[in-house]
Design a protein that fits this description.
The chain is of the alpha/beta class. It has two domains: 3-160 and 193-243, 3-Layer(aba) Sandwich (Rossmann fold); 266-503, 3-Layer(aba) Sandwich (Rossmann fold), CATH 3.40.50.300. It has 22 helices and ten strands. The strands form two sheets. Strands 2-3-1-4-5 form a five-stranded parallel sheet, with helices on both faces. It has a five-stranded parallel sheet with strand order 7-8-6-9-10, with helices on both faces. It is elongated. It starts with a helix and ends with a helix.
Length: 504
Amino acid sequence: MEKEEKRMLEKIDLTKKMDKEEYEKRMKRLEPELGRLQRECRERKIPVMIVFEGYGASGKGAQIGALIHALDPRGFTVYPVNNETEEERLHPYLWRFWTKLPEAGRIALYDSSWYRRVLNDRFDQKTGEAKVLEAFDSILAFERQLTDGGIVLIKFFLDIDKKEQKKRFKKLLESEDTAWRVSRQDLKRNEEFERYQKMNEEMILRTDTDYAPWNIIEAVDRRYATVKIYTLVAEALSGAIQKAAAPAEPQQPAPLHTPTDAELQESTLSKVDLSLSMEKEEYKKKLKKLQERIEELHGKLYRKRIPVVLGFEGWDAGGKGGAIKRLTERMDPRGYVVNPTASPNDIERAHHYLWRFWRAMPKAGHIAIFDRTWYGRVMVERIEGFCTAQEWQRAYREINEMERDLAREGAVVLKFWMQIDKEEQARRFKARQENPDKQWKITDEDWRNREKWDQYEEAVNEMLIRTSTSYAPWIIVEGNCKYYARIKVLETVVDALEKRLKED
């Protein structure tokens, strides 16, 4: 960073003011305009996120109060981002924000945001520079995913100088009713204002993007700040509405850097040896031993506060349910959840497609098992046309980023593809149809999907190549023999958990 850039906030003209007459004149026009834009966003199902960051006592709460004055209270939610709750601390950091995304047509306002902990922990020297850079990297990905998913993201940084902040702190401390709003950390940051300012400048420079730019608000004069915020929000909403109303342009897929085209020509699935099998007696012996070990490891994971995410995908009748059942039989039911993933409901469709999966991510020490996963985006949604080509091609990177964030927070992430051949699937379908107790497991949709086997195989091969990473690998399970498949799943989980526990 250049020296001149480091002094960015000091160059902001904080003397800007607006007299009462001008303020009232402008607000008379802006307030009804903002109300109209909110209604149109709601009609067009445009979700909006408005972030208020800035120095302590810069007026974030007052400006949020002024902004919502013009809005229909049925259409917005305000989230004060204070210190994390116990529940939030037990989840990945971004979980608390993924779970607070607005649904289509609503506005979410944040009094502080995902930047708060990064700044405060850095100032208090609770985190190293490498972790700070990782946090910025995750934030950039998070904001890009939101805006690519159709969310209008507006970020404000309310700027005041050291002298003004000290004056406001003094005023707050003079009254018992307001003194609680000033913490010892606030006062320390004022004493070391220049150091904290430098950190804020770096944050702004690193996270100021074309899809989520920062808007600096000169916040010494509150009337001036309010009018500027109103104006910028109105411009952003108006732009989003115009974009939504415009004819859709052909979208080019986001560039994908890896793997190479040559790699994509290869069929990963065709190399799988489906002749691998196991006798029933050997299966029973290994199953008992592995389940006992998983029970033991589950307790250790809980004590060490290590979260685990296990995703199961595969062909219909590929053995996902059977593998999950044997995996969990000896686990403490208080420490795991199996999440069956069906087609999204109306509420889920009104959010970003990753929202429902982030909500189900485990807290520290717990295990989340997904019977079908977020990979539906690049399989069924891709093939059935439930999303655009740009959306499913973009999803490879978005999914890798989500899994990377989970791994960075200490989670074990494993993904299993249960592989069977077409003939074995037909045999299992027929067996289900002929068994009254299992007929519920076979549907017309299962038979229809068989007709698109080649399309699904192509999609699966690409998925495996593009999203198998060191931190969240795909494990292809040879599944024609159920005994062999179940043991491979359990052995893989045991090995991964043992390895992770040794790292602590």
